[in-house]
Amino acid sequence: MFKKFKYEPGFLISDLICLVLFLVFWFLLPSRLFVAPTSFVIEASNGQLLSAAIARDGQWRFPVADSVPDKFNKCIIAFEDKRFYKHAGIDILALGRAMRQNFKAKSVVSGGSTLSMQVIRLYRKEDRTLTQKLIEMLLALRLEVRCSKSEILALYAANAPFGSNVVGLEAAAWRYFGRSANSLSWGEMATLAVLPNSPSLVHPGKNATKLIKKRNDLLDKLAALHYIDQATANLSKFEPIPGKPQQLPQNAQHLLNRFKQERASLGISSTRIRSTLDESLQLKVNALLKRYNNRYRANDINNIAALVLDVNTGSVKSYVGNIYQPDNTELESHVDMIKAPRSPGSTLKPLLYASMLNDGFIMPHTLIPDIPTQIGGYSPQNYDLGYDGAIPADRALSRSLNIPAVKMLQTYKYQRFYDKLKQLGFSTLNKPADYYGLSLILGGSEVTMWDLAKTYMGMARTLKHFNEFSGKYNPNDYDAPVYVSSKRDTRRDQENAQINSVFDHGAIWSAFNAMEELMRPGDEGLWEQFSSSQRVAWKTGTSFGFRDAWAVGLTPGYVVCVWVGNADGEGRPGLTGIDAAAPVLFDIFRQLPNGKWFKTPESKLKKIWVCKQSGYKAGEYCTDKIEEMVPSAGEKTGICPYHKLVHLDPTGSWQVTDRCESTTQMLHKPWFVLPPSMEYYYKIKNSDYKPLPPFKDGCGDMGNSYVMDMIYPRNNTSVYIPIEFDGTRGKVVLNATHRDPNIKIYWHIDDEYLATTKSFHQLAVSPAAGKHTLTLVDEHGERLSLVFTVLEKEASSRQHQ
Asked: Which of 289, 472, 628, 673 is the 20 to 30 Å CA partner of 691?
């Protein structure tokens, strides 16, 4: 029934030939046609161009866009290839017409190339011989098999020459009209559509007439094809043609440079990104910083930077790494100060405060010593050079006092704080903890604005997510901010939530409350100009030598960080956080929408009875107690050490002991008592402080009441005696304090009597270089002894370098 088919060798050979021809045809084109370098392009979140950089080969060539404006499609098809959607890469009718016209004219007056063939010509860049024309036709057929019509138009629009060093429609739109291609009019788009055919026409002068004629002819053709009406075509003819190419926007140049450096690590193949930047906000911040920069340059302060982060999305909303002024190289405006390591001044103090609250070292209002301090040759000073004796921790933070901060770090241990900063992701701590020591809290390290803002954003995100994660912690809250638009997958966040975090919700909430206080010694009136309708937690910082001025602030919606200074590190008088950076910070916040404040994380706070005067947990002798909501770790803090029971005579005017008063006659009264060195300054600032009554005659305190203390120098410290202007050796002022304001103190150095003081216990002396023993004895025989060292001039010079 069926005949057996006999396979002839000729069929096999023909099949193989067909297969080979098919494979040749299939692999004629590489997987990627155009490999020329493209410009780096940063777009705002709404797609508007913010910044672009010329490609490595000196051409303005943007990456291929996802879509081509419909106006350009219609213009280029009407001008170059009106049967584009009807042919498969070769237009036989157009080729016949061109051959007929060229034969009659005996020269090339018309071409029959389709847009597909022109894409191939742009790819091959070969001379236009007959052979090359045939190859173009073959490759055009292959291109049509591989790509859709819209993809072919996109390739043409991205790689066609538009005159000078401009390649591609999008680059041409910005260079010639200063706008995106999507926003061009019919007249402008028609102008660009005729340029790839004759790129030299774009130059102003003698070619202007030819360019206008070509454009107008195309507009009439668009009307004839009913793409536009004739009235629109006639009106479009009155539009001016482009003259000198325009500068492309430079509104996010430092982020563009950052993207160049980080593109590989971000895993992005294209040189164009849609960023998370808000175009309107970016332009406003640029203008605002430019205005402040013009003002500050009168004081030779040349650089300023600002970073705005969105707490809700963890993304960058504005990125201004510097005032970009490339024409003035002396200003070093190319330096991205958001990435530059700089001394943070006091901006790390809230992190220490939160750490101590988190780990149970303090409660929000715990008294911290604020007295002259020298630790291993290191002598911190407050901004106003004054002392409070003792101050609540939250007020010390809001006033940015240095000595309490050092005292707190001394208690917390700088090694522990260093580890906490490393855990938070501060990338510039590249030396061991001992290298920084206690100066870590006063700007002794370096940080970047990126790391600083990221940390405060992480804290804000953690507190804001309190309810969302049922009191747990999202480990991604402290991730680096993102600046490329891409929605992060949050589906597994809830199940990956953790019980513990760097800071608990209560510690963050208390730290933000302290940062709201807006106080600084000597500048209280200045804060009035920063009145705002929204609540802002914020902190300023000034580095040593007035080299860096910082301000960082946050709301539940945004984190703003500002730096002002000189990129070369030159310090300037008046370059402080409060004077230079804070005004900029609040001007930026005025550009941001208001929102509700953080919800109180009540389940992460505990009600504790607190001693109102000391801020410690109330003990049995605390007479004024208040119930406060404090971080849970506050339960681990100690009982108030400053309230004790004192024994008074029946009149209450004298302290007594059983040596001079019957215990049955004594009054036993709780008393708030600070150590003498703290009391010395505290009572000046706090008029309601009541010093202990003196002891009744004949009633010694048995050496247990700690009645005398040395303010300066402290035990085992080094002092330097300067040389006066007249060449004579200066003196060092010794300062002591005693609880009895009328007592006499007898001063001795190395067992040699010096002088006697009463009430005001200061003494100016000039001991020789070397180690000395200072001994103080009061009228009742109480003794105080310490050792100090007077430095040699050379040693002191080395120490102060």
From this structure: 628
